[in-house]
Amino acid sequence: MKIWQFSEQAYHPAFQKPGAMRVTLPQRECDPVEAGQLLNRYLDEYMLADEVGLNIMVNEHHAAATCMSTSCMTTLAILARQTSNARLLALGIPLANRSNPLRVAEEIAMVDCLSGGRLEVGLVKGAAYELFMSNRQPTGFMDRFWEAHDLILEALSNTGDNFSWEGEHFHYRTASLWPRPIQQPHPPIWMTASSASSASEYGKRGYTCATFLSGAVARSVFSGYRAAYLAAHGVQPDQDRLAYLALVSCAGDRATAFARAEKMKSYFTTAARLDPQFRNPLGFNPVEANIRMLQAGANAMRPRLRNGEALPVDGTIEQYMEAGLFFVGTPDEVYEQLVTFHEETGGFGNLLMMAQAGELDHQETVDNLTLMGREVAPRLAELATRTVEVRYEAVA
Question: Residue 257 sits in which domain range?
Answer without folding.
Answer: 2-385
